[in-house]
UniProtKB/TrEMBL annotation:
InterPro entries (alphabetical): P4HA-like
Alphabetic keyword roster: Iron, Metal-binding
GO MF annotation, one: procollagen-proline 4-dioxygenase activity
Species this protein is from: Phytophthora nicotianae (Potato buckeye rot agent)
Source organism superkingdom: Eukaryota
GO cellular component: a single term: endoplasmic reticulum
Protein's name in the database: ADP-ribosylation factor protein
PANTHER family: PROLYL 4-HYDROXYLASE ALPHA SUBUNIT, PROLYL 4-HYDROXYLASE ALPHA SUBUNIT DOMAIN-CONTAINING PROTEIN
Length: 165
């Protein structure tokens, strides 16, 4: 794609809704390019998943979590695992040496431009222990992801936490 083609596409789609969706649909390699450019510029070792790390996430004020998988670079490992869940994604047995949690419960494979949505609380506001989750380390490649959270508190109340000193 040339600069002129890109410019023409941007000009044609100016002011449209769902432009990001259209960019990814029209130029599927664009997401990979964004990740690579960002990765090259940031070069922060804190942003890379290191072995052997399994952290159980627990956030009582979060009502819903949406975890988006940004790439397909992980060939083995990198699953988001819910060790207390009763169902499995497939009949495939996942075994990770030294990480028993990755061999139990529900394991969601990291597939680029897919997402996992899960509730961390019950409708009554109680903690849903089956939502406890963690990331299995990728054995090859790098897993990139992004989170979006929905909270069980008023939006103005949450905003005040960040704007008041």
């Amino acid at each position: 794609m040339t600069n002129q083609e890109w410019f023409n596409w941007l000009k044609e789609n100016r002011g449209r809704n769902l432009v990001l969706f259209q960019v990814l649909k029209t130029f599927p390699h664009f997401a990979e390019l964004i990740i690579r450019v960002w990765e090259a510029r940031v070069r922060s070792p804190l942003l890379r998943y290191k072995l052997p790390k399994y952290v159980k996430h627990f956030h009582p004020q979060r009502y819903v979590t949406l975890f988006m998988y940004l790439n397909n670079q992980t060939k083995i490992g990198g699953e988001t695992v819910f060790p207390f869940a009763l169902d499995r994604f497939s009949d495939e047995e996942i075994v990770r040496d030294g990480m028993d949690e990755c061999s139990k419960g529900l394991a969601v494979p990291p597939r680029g431009l897919h997402a996992s949505l899960f509730y961390t609380q019950t409708p009554e506001g109680d903690i849903d222990h089956m939502s406890r989750h963690g990331g299995c380390p990728p054995h090859e490649g790098t897993k990139w992801g992004s989170n979006a959270f929905m909270w069980d508190s008023d939006a103005d109340e949450g905003a005040e936490l960040w704007t008041t000193k």
